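Q: Please design a sequence for this.
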């Protein structure tokens, strides 16, 4: 919902603020005062084409700012588009300077004009002379028919079935492409798997082998040291033990030894005994030590084999094991490829059948809704001053065989055609020449849709062109009816429509110095009576004011 619109230095407007409120709001004023300027400013803010010529003379730039209360759907869009969110408040700003440069922002974040245009489509419906292109779009007409028929559940099922068929086809095609790639690689895959299987690496084997080689090396070094110790203690050509034995034997030959000699000889005997004990310990250690022999060579050979495998594949051993498993899986896929292709083809057939059924159900619902909507629109258009207007809704269908022509919204286009005058022939809805006729058709559509559709500000331009009497009253009544479900804003010259409004704004033009300035004023109480009296009689005499009060009371 639009909470406020602020316009600065735009054409004749120096500064104007519009707060339309809920329901119906109207802009009134003398002819030529610039009532449509505010609607043009709103269209510019929502991504319309701008020009430096629109900057008010004497100003550096024009600025248009709108504050909306964003619906949950719009807030989701802001999140998806990465735009800042501030609760329910949504602030759009557009500036154009005298050099024609445009700057746009959403909640103070700079954006492109295209972002404002996309966002504006979810905030405002503009109906009038510029609506031809929108109504020419078949997707818009299809959405209108579906809203009228209440086809939301069927449309959701159609989208789901279409997505299911797309996914099934993608899965089948991806599988076939994968099989073709695997068939080209089959020989290479089998060679690689056979080579890895022959070596048969085990998880963590390389690290374990390195540790075992280190331990075997340590044992070999220990054995070498023990051999050296054996040679020194008890070598064949004389070792420490033999020397001590000889020394002990020779010292025993001395007779009449004194006390000092005896002590020295005792020391030699103790050394001999310690040497024998040390030799016994050495013998035990040598028995407990494992001879490295060929065990180390086998370990190092296995380690070299694993390292060569890693260098060849440029991967670690764990990655090679993973690669081998992936290649085995690929070969298994190739071996059962035909069976899987049959399974995926059957899934695709079922998905396409479900898609066709959903499309047919939606088409039947549209065929039933089209004549009902046609009759409802013609009835409304007669009441809105277009008694000779005829409407028809065509459902041209593409060839839907084997899924061709079926999209996420069904298998047919929806085309609204209108004949505004007898014998002139039907033309597409978007080719109606008159902006007033276009606005009335839009109003009729909005009336027959009721509360269906997104809750947006609905703007009508020139909807009262050429109306009077009963047609004007009918338009006023239906505008009020639409305003019960939607926020509505329009320019009007008809007092019966102005009297229906919840809020009325008067646009006036006054001379300030050497230039004209347009002002906008919200009317209430007697000021509103005065304005409606002017609209009724062109002046504000007592009878016109009485008539205006009566009209306001009647419409209220």
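A: Design:
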């Amino acid at each position: 919902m639009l909470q406020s619109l602020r316009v600065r230095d735009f054409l004749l407007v120096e500064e104007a603020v519009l707060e339309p409120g809920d329901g119906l709001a109207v802009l009134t004023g003398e002819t030529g005062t610039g009532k449509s300027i505010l609607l043009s400013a709103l269209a510019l803010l929502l991504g319309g084409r701008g020009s430096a010529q629109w900057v008010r003379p004497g100003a550096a730039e024009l600025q248009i700012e709108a504050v909306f209360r964003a619906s949950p759907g719009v807030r989701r869009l802001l999140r998806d588009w990465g735009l800042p969110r501030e609760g329910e408040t949504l602030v759009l700003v557009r500036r154009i300077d005298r050099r024609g440069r445009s700057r746009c922002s959403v909640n103070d974040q700079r954006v492109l004009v295209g972002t404002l245009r996309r966002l504006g489509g979810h905030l405002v419906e503009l109906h009038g002379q510029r609506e031809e292109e929108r109504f020419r779009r078949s997707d818009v007409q299809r959405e209108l028919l579906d809203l009228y028929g209440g086809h939301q559940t069927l449309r959701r099922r159609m989208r789901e079935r279409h997505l299911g068929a797309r996914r099934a086809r993608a899965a089948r095609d991806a599988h076939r492409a994968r099989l073709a790639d695997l068939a080209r690689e089959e020989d290479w895959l089998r060679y690689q798997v056979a080579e890895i299987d022959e070596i048969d690496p085990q998880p963590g084997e390389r690290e374990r082998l390195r540790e075992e080689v280190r331990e075997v090396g340590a044992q070999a070094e220990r054995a070498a040291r023990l051999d050296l110790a054996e040679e020194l203690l008890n070598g064949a050509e004389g070792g420490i033990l033999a020397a001590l034995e000889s020394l002990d034997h020779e010292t025993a030959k001395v007779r009449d030894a004194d006390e000092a000699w005896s002590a020295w000889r005792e020391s030699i005997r103790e050394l001999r005994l310690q040497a024998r004990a040390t030799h016994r310990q050495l013998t035990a250690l040598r028995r407990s030590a494992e001879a490295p022999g060929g065990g180390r060579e086998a370990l190092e050979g296995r380690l070299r084999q694993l390292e060569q495998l890693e260098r060849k594949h440029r991967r670690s051993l764990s990655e090679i094991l993973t690669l081998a498993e992936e290649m085995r899986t690929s070969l298994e896929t190739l071996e059962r490829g035909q069976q899987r292709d049959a399974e995926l083809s059957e899934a695709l057939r079922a998905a396409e059948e479900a898609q066709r059924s959903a499309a047919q159900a939606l088409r039947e619902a549209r065929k039933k809704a089209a004549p009902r909507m046609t009759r409802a629109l013609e009835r409304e258009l007669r009441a809105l001053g277009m008694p000779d207007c005829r409407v028809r809704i065509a459902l041209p269908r593409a060839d839907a065989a084997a899924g061709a022509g079926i999209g996420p919204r069904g298998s047919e286009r929806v085309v609204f055609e209108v004949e505004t005058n007898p014998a002139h022939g039907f033309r597409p809805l978007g080719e109606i020449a008159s902006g007033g006729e276009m606005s009335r058709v839009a109003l009729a559509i909005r009336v027959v849709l009721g509360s269906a559709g997104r809750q947006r500000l609905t703007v009508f331009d020139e909807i009262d062109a050429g109306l009077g009497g009963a047609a004007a009253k009918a338009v006023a009544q239906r505008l009020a009816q639409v305003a019960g479900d939607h926020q509505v804003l329009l320019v009007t010259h008809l007092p019966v429509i102005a009297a229906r409004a919840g809020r009325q704004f008067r646009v006036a033009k006054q001379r300030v110095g050497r230039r004209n300035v347009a002002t906008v004023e919200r009317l209430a109480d007697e000021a509103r009576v005065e304005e409606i009296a002017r609209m009724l009689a062109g002046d504000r005499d007592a009878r016109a004011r009485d008539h205006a009060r009566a009209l306001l009371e009647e419409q209220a």
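Q: Thanks. Anything notable?
A: Residues 1-123+456-523 form a domain with the Rossmann fold fold (CATH 3.40.50.300). The two ends are 23 Å apart (CA to CA).
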